[in-house]
Amino acid sequence: MARQTASDPGFGVYVHWPFCLSKCPYCDFNSHVRSQPVDERRFVDAIGAELEHRASLTKGRTVRSVFFGGGTPSLMQARSVSTILNTIAKHWQVAPDVEITLEANPSSVEAARFRDYRAAGVNRVSIGVQSFDDAALKALGRLHNAAEASNAIDVAAQVFERYSFDLIYARPNQTVKAWEAELKTALSRVREHISLYQLTIEPDTMFERLRNAGKLAIPDSDLGRAFWDVTQELTALQSLPAYEVSNHARRGSESRHNLIYWRYGEYAGVGPGAHGRIITPRGRRAQSTERHPEMWLTVVEADGQALIEDELLTNEEQGDEFLLMGLRLTEGIEPARFEAVAGRRLDPGRVASLIADGMVEMMPTGRLRVSAEGFPVLDAVVADLAA
Ligand code: SF4
């Protein structure tokens, strides 16, 4: 069976579970809080219907990765996860070494489900720790505390061979020194993978409203750079270099699912607000589903699927997406693959000028990647190359 490589990223399935117990003030994901219990069985049946629909569009693929994201998929019953995985196995061939990841919040209730998820087929958890500081967790609107986060990592380490956890840094009022101490604690708990996200203020979030009202101060770009630098230094010292702008792993332990996105592979997305990119005889299609959970459910129950977007991408759009995704990776991109996807060559003048500015570098293998200096200003570098 062919393995996942940079030029053959493979096929994955993304399942979106859109519910959370509360809305975090920085979050712009498609996550919803319900005061009444969710009819989980109906949602799982509808996810099954969407899986059947996407399978009819992607016959013959081998699933190399399944990712349960959200929202909070660790609010799902393990038997729901098992039902969904059985449905996937019914519709596609599944690679023997398939990676099956479930995002989990570290509450004690959710950690207690880890063994059942493992028995259902999940072989990797990604835990939303966010901080090891109780006051910071409160400010981030999280419902767990540092002790629960630590316990969830312990349980994950016992149950799963592979686990990861997320932290958010450059938070309001956080100092670089305090982050350094917190990151050292975090790194001592890492087995193979950690995600480190610099806090960004997203549109239409509570944090945006607070910032606009002058009630939330986040680090400016100079301080943000200091946070970034210490993050890169400490992770490199622990043999956990960044393989993507916010993700660090030991070699060979990268998130295979996210590599499918960043290497511009193919994936089917099911559930409310899920995105997909699938390749059809006419070309690559961008798909996304109805975001509102109950509306999505109604449409799927009536029509078997709830796509609200299903567009053939132009070469130009594919080229832009390819750069946007691929340049996030420290392995960079293959210029020949860009040419195949975009139907044009990268502008040699722009490449030369970005190399001269130290923002990108051509590797001996012929791949083009963003340099260490370019990563903190990645968006600007990508915009320049794509123009
Ligand atoms: S738990 Fe995650 S998905 Fe849910 S609101 Fe918080 S950040 Fe968003």
UniProtKB/TrEMBL annotation:
Location of this chain's protein in the cell: Cytoplasm
SUPFAM superfamilies (UniProt xref): Radical SAM enzymes
Gene Ontology MF, one: coproporphyrinogen oxidase activity
Domain called Radical SAM core: residue spans: 5-241
Keywords for this protein: 4Fe-4S, Chaperone, Cytoplasm, Heme, Iron, Iron-sulfur, Metal-binding, S-adenosyl-L-methionine
GO terms under biological process: porphyrin-containing compound biosynthetic process
Nucleotide-binding as UniProt keyword: no
InterPro entries, A to Z: Coproporphyrinogen-III_oxidase, Elp3/MiaA/NifB-like_rSAM, HemN_C, HemW-like, rSAM, rSAM_sf
The keyword S-adenosyl-L-methionine is assigned to this record: yes
GO CC terms, sorted: cytoplasm
Pfam families per the UniProt record, alphabetical: HemN_C, Radical_SAM
Family assignment from sequence similarity: Belongs to the anaerobic coproporphyrinogen-III oxidase family. HemW subfamily.
Purpose of the protein: Probably acts as a heme chaperone, transferring heme to an unknown acceptor. Binds one molecule of heme per monomer, possibly covalently. Binds 1 [4Fe-4S] cluster. The cluster is coordinated with 3 cysteines and an exchangeable S-adenosyl-L-methionine.
PANTHER family, per the entry: COPROPORPHYRINIGEN III OXIDASE, RADICAL S-ADENOSYL METHIONINE DOMAIN-CONTAINING PROTEIN 1, MITOCHONDRIAL
Protein name according to UniProt: Heme chaperone HemW
